[in-house]
Amino acid sequence: MWFVFLGLALVILVVGGIYFVRRVCNTLQYFGAPEVIVTSVRWSLRWLLFAFPLLLIGIIAFTLLTGGKDFGLDNEWLMWGMAVPFFVTLVVLLQSLPFFLLTDLVSVPQKWRKRVDRARPMVVGLVTAFFFIYTPARILADKGTLEVRHYSVGKKTQERPLKIAFLADLQLDNAVPESRGMEAALAVNKEKPDLVFVGGDWVNSGSRYVDASARVAGKLKGVEQTVSVFGDHDNFIFLDRERSRKLISEALAKNNVAMLDNQVRFYKHQGKSVGVVFLTYNYIEKATDAQVNSLVESVMSADYKIVVTHQMNDWLAARLKNRVNLVLSAHTHGGQVNPVVFFKHFQLARIETRYVSGGYDLGSTKVIVTSGVGFSTAPFRYASPATVEIVDVSL
Length: 395
Hints:
By secondary structure, the protein is an alpha/beta fold.
C-alpha cells in the first residue's frame, strides 16, 4: 500500500507540477511581466518541485547499487537547502490546484468562457500569493507546539485511576533534535504516570540518533518499566532490518526501556489485573490474524485489556472491536502535513486510515491515536500539532 501512495504522489507531483508552473507563468505574462521574470519564475518553480525528488531517487539508487549501509539522508544542507523548500512548494501546489481546476471546469460552458478567461489570472495570482504566505507562516506557528491531551476511560469509580502515558513517533534526526525528545519526556514526567508506553519510531533513519533517542527513553519515568513496540522507522536505521531492530532494542534496554515484539505483560492496580498486548503492526511487519487472536486471547482473563500498536486500520479494528477495552496507536502524525482543500485543512492520513488523531469509539473498545512528536518525510508539521496522550483508566 505504501508503494501505491508513493506512485500516486509522484504522478500528482509531475502532472500537477507541470500544470501549476504553466498556470503561474501564464498569469505573469497576462499581467505584462517581462519575459526574463517569467523565465526565472518558471525555472525556479521547476527546481523547487523536481530537483529534490530527482536527487533523492539518485541517492537511493546509488546506495542500493554500491551496497551502502544506509541512505545518508540525515544531512543539514539537504534538509534546509532542498527538502524544506520542496515540501513547502509542494503544499502550496496541492492547495492551489483545486482552485485552478475549478476555473477550468467553470470555463467549459461556452457562454462563461470569456468571462472566466478574464478572471482566471486574478484567481491564480491571488491564490498562489496567499498560499505562499500562509503556508510557511502556519508552519512557523506550529513549530514547537506540544499538546498534552487527557482522556478518562473505564468505569467511573472513586478509586485512583491507573494513569497511562502514551507517546510515539519521536523520530529523532537533524530536523528533530534530542532536546525536542527531552521536552516530550518532561511533559510525560510532569503527569506522574503509573505506566509509560511508546508506539515506536524512535529515530527517523540512520544510526546517528540512536543514542540520543535512548537518552530520551531513559528520562521517561513511570512506576513500571517503560515499554515500546516497533514502528516502521525502527527498521530503517540500516538497510539491514534485523541489524536496525537489534541496535535500537539494545540501546533502549541500556536505559531500562523494553522493546517488545508480539508479547504480553500483566500489571496490577488496586487489586485489579491489566493485560497489555504489545502488538507488532507496521508497514514492515504486520502480525497475522492468528497472532492477533492468540495474543488477545492470552489477556482475556485480565480485568482490563489493552493493545499497544504502531498502526491502526480497519483490518485490525475488526479483530479488536469489543474484545479489548483500549487500543493505543500512533503512526499517522495526525496527518502531519494537512493541506487546505478549498477552505478547510484536510488530514492527509485519512486517505490511509480513519484512525488519525484523538479518541474513537469502536463498540465497547476505545481507540486513542497520538499525533506523535517528530516528523516523517516532510521536515515540519502543518496544521497538525505534536501530542502526547495521558489516559486515566478507571478499573
